[in-house]
Amino acid sequence: MVANTTQPSVTLNDARAMPRLGYGVWQAPPAEAEAGVKQALELGYRSIDTAQDYGNEEAVGRGLARSGIPRDDIFLTTKVFNNDQGFDQTLRAMEASLTRLGVDYVDLYLIHWPSAFRGLYLDTWRALIRLQEEGRARSIGVSNFQPPHLLKLFEETSVVPAVNQIELHPIFQQRELRNFHAQHGIATESWSPLGQGTLLDHPVLNAIAEKYGRTPAQVILRWHLDNDLIAIPKSVTPARIAENFAVFDFALDQDDRTLIDGLDSAAGRIGPDPDTANW
Length: 279
Ligand code: NAD
Description:
The protein has 279 residues and is of the alpha/beta class. It has helices spanning 30-43, 57-67, 87-101, 121-133, 147-157, 175-184, 203-212, 216-226, 238-245, 254-261; strands at residues 9-11, 17-19, 23-24, 47-49, 75-80, 106-111, 137-143, 163-167, 187-191, 230-231. The strands form 2 sheets. It has an 8-stranded parallel β-sheet with strand order 3-4-5-6-7-8-9-10. The longest helix is centred in the middle third of the chain and has 15 residues, at 87-101. The termini are far apart. Nicotinamide-adenine-dinucleotide binds at residues 24-26, 49, 112, 143-144, 165, 191-197, 200, 217, 232-235, 240, 243-244, 271.
């Protein structure tokens, strides 16, 4: 396979382009999030993933501003949290996020979790449709949604989410959900793409890394890209932020991709199960 030397993007079902490698800031305290976002943008990242729930939207906004990169060149994602679900609450939550971020629009607004016990994700989705019509969110999508939740959105509104951001990494590959997304034109975005760092000492990944003269993190991120996924690794360590972006000049052989495909495990989930999460 010929290596990709430029930053790849995916065309979403609303015809907008989204970079396939972004920078995530969950659990980054404000000062580190601000510095990390600025550094990531300076290194060439053009996609940033935050959320109302991460408590660092203001810091992300400062990082964006300090980078000097034009707003229109940056793909910015944030998310409405569970306790703000509902039509009017979501419209208000979006205004608050835009104010904290210091921007007029986000590129992608996501429903963070279905939080199905509240019975509000459909009303929340209707609010996202309104926000897209108003230009406050250029693309709209969801996170942690399972097929029944997704089907309800299509059936009731005919608007298919552009993206579903889900836990996905080599030991939890979500093949069934990815197939469902492919059937319906939904882009799959991998959260915790490095398994929250727990996969970096895996012997198979280390052996592959050695073969390519790369690090395990780079091999894992390359696996996401080679599978047409969107990945948003997080680090607040400058050298690692750079390392995680230096993945466009090589590709994995089919044999190595197959080896990584074989690491999938039904017990590989690290984060909460959306079907039982009850907050
Ligand atoms: P991740 O898989 O990106 O792993 C991050 C951890 O791996 C870091 O804290 C660091 O300890 C380590 N690491 C990163 N790069 C490294 C490197 N090159 N070398 C060695 N160690 C390295 O985990 P994550 O932060 O959980 O996920 C990434 C992003 O996904 C988050 O920041 C957030 O934006 C998003 N996310 C979304 C949800 C959701 O519910 N939608 C949930 C979790 C995460």
